[in-house]
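A further point concerns the way the authors explain their paired sequence and structure data. Since the whole study asks how a given chain folds, the encoding of that fold should be made plain. A single example would do more here than another paragraph of explanation. An entry of this sort, consisting of the sequence and the corresponding backbone structure tokens, reads as follows:

_____
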Amino acid sequence: MGGIEYAVILPTLWLYMKNDFSARPYFLGFVLSAFSFSALLFSPVIGRCADVFRRPKLLLILCTLWEIAGNAMYFMGISKWFLLGSRLVSGLGAGGEALILAEIGIILDMIALPFLVVCSISLFSKLTRKDSQGLSQGIRRSVVGVSCILAPLWAGSTIDKPYLMFGVMIGLLVMALTMLIISFSKLNTNKDGKDAHQITQATLSSVQHEYDQERQPLLSQN
């Protein structure tokens, strides 16, 4: 349900209000803030109810129904004030996300996100030269930042072409997976046939040897 906010509501809200209700730009801010404001108020309340009554599944069902009702009110679109109320109702239902985060989300975030970040950075560092690691990682992070800016702009322009949006998303995922499979073999061996573990051990031994040499006192000349 939370994906509806980003995939449907946010890209269509302004044109919906402007064309159908002649709303002013400042009212867009009210409607956008209503969802977050309602979720801010009710998230701790719903979380506390789950701690007291020990019925998280029932509360999650109720919150989901509230969010469905709010989205239904949004598509009914009786007036701009009705839209504002629909976002408040949806925000109340979104407060149930605290239950999911408490049960599942924290564990997934703790495991999946660091795993993906470390693996992607490690993969990228293995495929670039040692003397250009800083520049390569900077370019990689810049590309990620540009993608985070351009992707929502492009997605918002394809709201009336859902098959195009879906096709491009699937194509990008397939392309990324293909590139990962092709480059994955380079993590196992290098040109000399040594595996990554041997290379790492040799590097650590070299660094330790240099460190031991630096710790030795200089011999004074007689």
Notes: The first helix runs from residue 2 to 21. The helical segments are 2-21, 25-53, 56-76, 80-94, 97-126, 133-156, 162-184, 196-215. The radius of gyration is 26 Å.
